[in-house]
Amino acid sequence: MSLKEKISIENFEDKKFKIRLIESEKDTEAAFTHYLHNQKNKASKFYKTDALEHVKNLLEYKYPDVDVSDKTAEEALQYLIFQQEDIPFPAPKKPDFKFIDLFAGIGGFRLAFQNLKGKCVFTSEWDKYSKLTYKANFGEVPFGDITKPSTKNYIPNEFDVLCAGFPCQAFSIAGKRGGFEDTRGTLFFDVAEIIKDKKPKAIFLENVKGLRSHDKGKTLATILNVLREDLGYFVPDPKVMNAKEFGVPQNRERIFIVGFRKDLNITEFDYPNPAKKKVTLENILENQTVSVKYYLSETYINTLRNHKARHASKGNGFGYEIIPNNGIANAVVCGGMGRERNLVYDFRLTDFTPVTNITGEVNKEGIRKMTPREWARLQGFPDNYKIVVSDAQAYKQFGNSVAVPAIQATAKKIIEKLKNI
């Protein structure tokens, strides 16, 4: 067996090797996985140099007594193309269009666009746990900090749609206009910079509903001005979309911003109408008995009740909430009362012996938190989507994610427009 044949995809899971990679400024691991998944399009050339470096580093790490030549690394890289791992969500074999996925999280945008026969040619996400989940499901390691020029340099030139669920940040608007330079220092500036440089046919941005009123409306006004005037895109008025209107039982409102390059002469765009199918919580709850670890202790329930009563006495409606099976969940969020505002009744538990360290006894009222899988379903992720992190990280990831069905319904409208040009 030759040296190149000794290496396999599994070799790249070596933890000590990955620790050494962290010390490098180059994102060679991401480049390696992106190269493997882009063999049939021109994007692969943006990744090959660092992908070769990644393979060579691994061979030198695994076999320190062997002189690894560039030719050997090249042969090993080509050999690895045929060893790609089995993943739940591979890209379509014959894609209709290409897109990039910025602030990718765990791939909600990617799922939606792949379902429409799109091929993702670049993705970035800085959170290390989200990267683990992303790789487990799509086979690619996202690139890291998108604010770094070194990361932007990996973005290929030819793609059709830019997707980004960027954070909401205030701008320091020097003048009344609110232009490109006014957004400098924010993550939207980096998105705008990529749009300016790569000029994709279409853009699809997602943000919290509060973007409309953020900084008295100045933030959204500046974003629209930059997209329309500085970057040259037709951008219809953004629309707040609710996940519960697209097939998931979650009251989750998010603002969608869609745009098309003006030279395409697209002058109108209609956001999708709500789906006719209405679903409730019982459509996404676990079929089997849930572990006792998801059931609240009597002590904690009493704490929640006292907390809610204190707020009620002050005229506030803040507190825990138990959602009926025929109801709609509140928005799942990664912090605050995210889990406590989406409690459910489940009377199937028979063994109340705690499996975690809790204060007091497990409650006998059937009150439990939703499981991470139930949160995944609330966001429209299919059941074969892998959850490979701790519960705490999974709640955070799904709480931060997009609702896939709402994204896909809008993405379908975008692609229909592009096909008709």
UniProtKB/TrEMBL annotation:
Q: State the EC number(s).
A: 2.1.1.37
- UniProt entry tagged with the keyword S-adenosyl-L-methionine: yes
Query: What GO terms in the biological process aspect are recorded for it?
Result: methylation
What keywords were assigned to this record? Methyltransferase, Restriction system, S-adenosyl-L-methionine, Transferase
Q: What class of enzyme is it?
A: transferase
Superkingdom classification of source: Bacteria
Reaction(s) this enzyme catalyzes, per UniProt: a 2'-deoxycytidine in DNA + S-adenosyl-L-methionine = a 5-methyl-2'-deoxycytidine in DNA + S-adenosyl-L-homocysteine + H(+)
**One Pfam annotation, family name?**
DNA_methylase
Glycoprotein as UniProt keyword = no
Which residues are named in the active-site annotation?
A: C168
Classification via InterPro entries: C5-MTase (IPR050750), C5_DNA_meth_AS (IPR018117), C5_MeTfrase (IPR001525), SAM-dependent_MTases_sf (IPR029063)
Which GO terms label this protein's molecular function in UniProt? DNA (cytosine-5-)-methyltransferase activity
Q: Which family does it belong to?
A: Belongs to the class I-like SAM-binding methyltransferase superfamily. C5-methyltransferase family.
Protein's name in the database: Cytosine-specific methyltransferase
Source lineage: Bacteria, Pseudomonadati, Bacteroidota, Flavobacteriia, Flavobacteriales
